[in-house]
Amino acid sequence: MDCVQQKTHDPYATVESRCQLKLVNYEAPENHISHETEGLSRKHLVVRRGEPFKITLMFGDRPWNPHIESLVLEVWLGDVSENIRVQFSDEWSDPLRWSAKIYRSDMHPQSVTVHICSPVLSAVALYKLLLHIETRRTRRSYLVGTFVLLCNPWLKDDPVYMPLGVQTQEYIKSDYGMLYMGTPLNISSQPWSFGQYEPGVLEACLQLLQVSPQHLRDKNEDYALRADPVYLSRTLCAMVNCNDDLGILMGKWQGSYKDGVKPTEWSSSADILHQWFTSSCKPVRYGQCWVFASVLCTVMRVLGIPSRVVTVFNAAHDGDGSLSVEEYYTSTGEKLNLSKDSVWNFHVWVECWMRRPDLGSGFDGWQVVDPTPQEKSAGIYCCGPCPVVAIQQRYLGAFYDTGFISASVDADIIRLIVNDGLVVGRTVDTEAVGQLIYTKSIGSDRPENLTAVYKSKKRVQPTRAVRCTPRSERQTDTVMMNMCSVAVGGPMQSSQLQDGAVAYCSSMQSSQLQDGAVAYCSSMQSSQLQDGAAGFPEGLSQGLEVSLNIDGVPSVGNSIVMCVTLTNQSSSPRVVMEHLNAQVKEFNGSPQESFWKTHKKIHIKAGEVLKLKHTIPTSEYEAYLAGDDIVNVAVVIKDLKTNESILAAQEFNISSPQIAIEIDGGDTIKLKDEHTAQVSFINTFPKTLNGAVLTVEGSGLLKGKHQASLVFLKPGEKIEKQVSIVASSPGTKVLMATFSHSNSPGVVSRNFHRVSVMTD
Question: Which residues are catalytic?
């Protein structure tokens, strides 16, 4: 339908004595401005619940006579409708029901403007609107058209109300964000285009609700529940992944991505939503945590729920609800794939803003909603909404999934050294998990540190029970029981664990195991390891202390320099063996084979502190490390007299040389105008790079990929590519460039450049 005016059909048009509706003006420009929905759709009138919008009814030759003819609007949603008798403005109307009013100044001989208002707790959906012109003896009906109703964060009575204008501007209207990745030692950032103003995105978000299992099972019940942002967020969270339904994204964390798009190559939610929508809801390949989260953030903002993307550095995956994660190392410092749990170097989820009447006002505000398919919640792959305040206070019984999410930011890492099937050393790290938690600042690309919002300065003991106010009668006791068991962390099947986040001992190669542990580990689970270090204090070995630090920020092409600090707090000299080991790993996976190791016998005097420098030269790692890889380095100190062992570990990513992107005239361009972008990379490495390739692409700016290649790129030389960009729609776009060469196993450098497209 045309959202400005709609022709209507009147079966009684030949009866000249009756008032006939000819046209409807949806007053779209004015409604969209007053409802903060400009640009969301070219197809539909889009308004917000609880806020009046207006339509103008235009009649035929005979004007409407309010003395003998009544106007009745009828709103349809699914199989349920509600009649709205049009009243004059001085008449009372029930704020909890639909209303329609006419102001005397809006009455004209051939037209009348009607102001329509929905209840504040109306369902988010596409509605159908009819008009009936009634007399005592006749009723003439017209299909007026359709309109979309969204949540209203500008309205105080709406559960998603957000008080400050700068907040709604950032968390509803802004169409771009910043993603933070890497490790706490070396944080990288990437702009992301949420793209809620791209054509078709609103329609894709509405379709997402229409194909959900809840809607397909009982559409009228689904419509009734869609007024609740808690219900909406759980439904949409599950629909962003495709594990249980016709959802948007398929996840993949290892292997080849040739039959889809590698997650690191996405930079826009709109591209993903368009592909899903136009393919009749076939899952888009592939996503990882930041892609899942960014798409969910787009859907939430489109539907009117304030949202932001949040990164947790060193996020624990605790599947058994123990609030701890075990890591296993050999006595030479090689990390083993024995634990069913893991620590991701970073994990990205969404926070949504809403009231929680099911829990009480103390749990209002930001709620964690995590669409990455990790664990099932009440039988489906979704997570949250979980109040951030419940995480900080460790109220693990608060709905939903608080135990699992709390562990993500505040679990203990228990590092165990194993040898011949025995645990010979043990350390407990209570600080590493959730070390930093970032989101984009309001009105700035700088990160806002949320760590203190999630974690109290003084660690709180977990509480498993929370007093809740009664839930809606529509939610059964069975569902509530299921939710509660998930929230406190129940038993988990190994089949529920995802991809690289889980690796059992039985799947390991024997070459990965050291010191006689091969035969034993191949036939056991980690729980079968025997504790040969039961008498050790945590993190200490009878007066020995060890720490491991990385000097500076390691960068591609330069040596990695580390410092091991060894302290002998005892009154006797010690002879120890130092083992260092370095391995490659992906941000969420278990380590691969070691690429560097060393060992050395050390004599340390009583009370002495030794600082031991170690260097990994470029030649030792360049064949193993690509731009997105993480390095795990561990040091094990073994007392040669007592055989006691202690361990320290660090994980870090290596920064890459930057790709330069410059746009003539600046980063703000006009719609449909042609601009030139200059993309270049300078070889800062001390050697010639073979098979250098520079690739440029950008959805909504460029068609396809544009490449420049050189057989040899000598030190100090530049490879560059000039491209012409033309923006096809307004909003924020992202230009992406990558550099690779044949000496490296993957992309060496990647850069994302934000471009703002204006209509004027």
Answer: 289, 347, 370
